[in-house]
Amino acid sequence: MKLHTITKHIVDYYLDHLERLTDPDKFFRINRKTVLSVESRKDLQSWSSSRIKVNLSDMKDVDTVVSRDRYREFKSWLDQ
């Protein structure tokens, strides 16, 4: 798995494990393959009903659409 920060890192964790290691106030798992930092988001874009695309400040090659299952929880996380 690759960990995208300003630079890319290869880590030996599954995403489920990595998610448990992060601070839930600062990181959120938006879909099955992406955990993002609150600081990494540039803006939000309506993708479809109940879906949001998160535009990241430094990475354009990462799929950043919030899954339907996590949409409401994500909106609550942003509002905290």
Task: Describe what this molecule looks like in 3D.
The chain is an alpha+beta fold and 80 residues long. It has one domain (2-79). 20% of the residues lie in helices and 39% in strands. It contains two helices and seven strands, in the order E-E-H-E-E-E-E-E-H. The protein has helices at residues 15-21, 71-79, and strands at 2-4, 8-10, 27-31, 34-37, 41-48, 51-56, 65-66. The strands form three sheets. A three-stranded antiparallel β-sheet has the order 5-6-7, with no helix packed on it. The protein has a two-stranded antiparallel ribbon with strand order 1-2. It has a two-stranded antiparallel ribbon with strand order 3-4. Strand 6 and strand 7 (65-66) form a beta hairpin. The longest helix has 9 residues, at 71-79. It is globular, with a radius of gyration of 12 Å.
Could you outline the blueprint of secondary structure elements for this entry?
Elements: E1 2-4, E2 8-10, H1 15-21, E3 27-31, E4 34-37, E5 41-48, E6 51-56, E7 65-66, H2 71-79
Antiparallel strand pairs: 1-2, 3-4, 5-6, 6-7
Q: DSSP helix count?
A: 2
Strand content: 35-45%
Strand order of the largest sheet: 5-6-7
Radius of gyration: 12 Å
| Quaternary structure annotation | single chain
Shape: globular
Helix content range: 10-25%
Count of DSSP strands: 7
Low-confidence stretches: none
SSE arrangement, N to C: EEHEEEEEH
Euclidean distance between termini CA atoms: 30 Å
Number of structurally distinct domains: 1
For the report, how would you describe the main beta sheet?
3 strands, antiparallel
Q: State mean pLDDT (0 to 100 scale).
A: 82
Q: Strand pairing plus helix content: what structural class?
A: alpha+beta
